[in-house]
Structure prediction request, 63 residues.
Amino acid sequence: MGEIRKTYDIEFKRKAVAMFLEEGPTEEELIMAIEQYIYFYNHERFQQKLNNLSPIEFRTKVA
Prediction:
């Protein structure tokens, strides 16, 4: 599971750097990239310390 996160993080950073180096992202592109990362971070990123659940799944299960 950690490998998926690592790959996604690397790809996200690569896209972000490429956008800035080329011509810079538009405000909409930047907002969309940040929203996609936040969604991934909260919904798709599984953590061992949370019993291999995403943060949202863990909060839902605990509540």
